[in-house]
Every structure is written in structure tokens, then in C-alpha cells.
Amino acid sequence: MENEPTGTSADVPAHSGDVPTARVTLLELFLLFSQLGLSSFGGAVSAWVHRAFVERRELIGEAEFAAALGLARIIPGANVVNLAVMLGHRLRGAAGAIAAGLGLILGPTLVAIALMIAYRRWGGSPGSRALLEGAAAASVGLLIAMGLAAGAYLIGIGTKSERDDVSSNRHHAPSFWSMIFFRKPVSTFRDHALWTWRNAANTALIGAVFILIGVLHFRMVPTVLVLTPASIALAYLFPLPRD
Amino acid sequence: MPADAKTLATLALVFAPLSLVSVGGGSSIIAEMQHQAVAVHHWTTQREFTDLFAIARAAPGPGMLLATLIGFITAGWLGAVVVTLAFFLPSSLLMYVTVSIFNRWRGSTWHRAIEAGLAPIAIGLILAGAFAVLTTEGSGVLAWVLALAVTVFRMWRPSLHPLVLIGLGAAVFVVAHTFA
User: Fold this and answer.
1) Which domain holds residue A112?
2) Is A150 domain-assigned?
3) Which end of chain A is more exposed for a tag (fewer CB within 10 A), N or C?
4) Global pTM?
5) Nearest chain A Cα distance for residue B122, angstroms
6) How many domains are contained in chain A?
7) SS3 at position B22
8) Which of B14, B19, B49, B57 to mutate to test the interface with A (most CBs of A within 10 A)?
9) Pick from A180, A147, A144, A141: which is nearest to A162 by CA?
10) What is the pLDDT of residues A184-194, one digit of tens each?
């Protein structure tokens, strides 16, 4: 099992070539992702994928998995579906990508539709409505927590403890965001002057997106198409001493 | 629920672009999905949308099954298939194409800039999506209190399984409803 730290080296891992690419069949790939999709709740699928592919089966190395996670985040789309496409492609080519993606989506889709049919059938009772409203409110809380944890790191009040959570083999699944954002202790660059104003810029960007789209109901696509290039240009011109 | 060709085409035309702008994961486009499904196309009522959101989050797997459920409620099984393809296929194809050229990028200034630049946008979108759901007509003070309580608890005890919090939230509402 690979125990080297993840996300710290920018180059392609040396050991990735040593890993045979055909150690898993298409059916296995499909079933593995079906199982991952069906057994993970609360939007933390990628942590379970890591457990299965890196820790348990050792199908790909740590560094390569970290690269896959990063890319899955950059490309639009559900992060974990992107991750499935990439791992499937890496292990079994085009057919692997399809098998992995389908495996991940199919089972949960059927479960969700079954839940919905059950709700529409018995959902008339006030009790079941309260049940769903409560679940929805709690789910919103999970979303906010995910956003705040990522934002807190970005503007410098995150801690290292989340990172430690991720690297431990505890049974719980850390959030996707904590895996990505809590790679390094913030203190390594906390005092940097550049970092201070970039902090302010990032906070302003988060706030602008939140207020424009969430509060003022601007259309999302044009808003994102304007703000994202600005944000990337900022990161390009004034890169943080991070990696 | 008539699954006519026009409705299916509209579903595809709404969800395919959403697929390509959902930076930072699907939760970033909930606000836009709600706008399209409720205000623009009247596929669901506000209440139904909130319910679908809860069902999608309670079900296992990627959180973005919400899109599939909107397709199902609008145009049945065919609608579910059309939306699922429209929503997951474009981004997956983009991912697939990018995978083949990604290794040439890795470590470059542009790669890092894109990654760093997308982060604040994605965070803002996630918070906006949460706000959009909370400010809907159906949700009262209790929803706010519960959502914020879950937020605090989730950040305080990240090891607690999210489904426990969802279950507790549902229980609180049922109890509140029973004694209200």
C-alpha cells in the first residue's frame, strides 16, 4: 500500500507506470462503482472511491488519484462522475469510462426514483411532508458546512486537522472539499503579504457570486462566465505561494 | 405527465448547458435549476422542488440525482433518461477529452491558476444554492434554525455520518409537526 503524501508533488508519480492497467475487468469496474454509489450518502462519494481504488484494491497510486481528483474538480459536472470517467478510462479505456460512469449513476438513480414514487404514493400525509422538509433543511445545512469549510480555508482560517482526518483510515468519509482544500497547514503561508490581499479578493469573489446569484437572482451562466475568467486571471497574475 | 417530444427537447436543452457550467460539482447549480424548473418552465411547484431536493440528498450516490428526478416528475421514465443523459454526458465527454491532454498541463502555471481561480466561484455558488433553497416560500423559521444547527454540527464533528444529521433533521420536523 502506498503511504506517501498526496498532492505535494507536481509531477506524475514514478510508480504509476508500475501499476498494471488491466487488473480489473469491465464488469468488476461497473460493480465496484455501483457499490460505491449505493453505499455512500451525503455527497462524499469520492472519499469512498479513494478507499476502494487506492487503499483496498491498489489499482492506482496516491499521487495519480490526487491528480484525478483535481481534474475532476476543474472540469464542470458532478465531481465524482468525472472521477469515475477518469479512473475508468485510466484502467480500461473508453469502455471502462462508460462502465464506471454508468455503474455510479444507475443504481442510485433507481433508488431515488423509487423513493420519489413512494413519496408521491404515500406523501399526502402531513407527517411525511414534515419528514421530507426536515431532511431537506438538514441537507441544506450539509451544503452550507461544505461551502463554509472550503471558504474558511481559502480565506485563511482553516486548520490542519481536516487534512489529518482525510489521511487517516477512519471509517467515516471526509467531505470532498476537505480532501481538496486541506492539503497543507495554512500556517505555511499565512503571513505572506500577497496572501493577505488575495484573501480579500477571494472573499470578495465568494461574496459576489453568493449575492449576485443567491440573493439578487442573476442568471448563473452569464454571471459565472464573467467572474470565472476574472478569478482565473487573478490567480494567474498573482499566484499564491501554495504548491 | 405527457412525455411529448417538445417537453423532452426542452428538458435536454435546459440541462445540457447546466452540465457544462456546474463548476465545483453539481451543488453549485441548484439555484439555477430551481429557477428553470419552477419559475421558467413550471415543471415543478416550489414545494415539489424542495421535496425532490430532499429525496435526492437522502438517496445514496451523487447528489445531482435532483436533475434526474425533475426529468422523471416532468416526463416519466423517458424524461428521467433524457435528463440524465443531458446532464451527465456533456461534462463526462469533456472530462474524457481533457484526461488525454491533462498530463501535459500538470504543474504548469496555467493549470494551477485555473484550479485556484475556480475555487472561490465554486464556493460562492454552493452557498448561493443553499440560500436559494432556504428562502423558498415553504420553509419557515424552523428550517433556518435546523439548517444552521446542522451546519455548525457538521463542522464541529465532521466524523459524524451525514445521514445521521439528515435523519435527526427529519425527526425534529416530524416531532414539531406532531405537537404544533
Assistant:
1) 7-122
2) no
3) N
4) 0.66
5) 8
6) 1
7) coil
8) B57
9) A180
10) 444 444 445 66
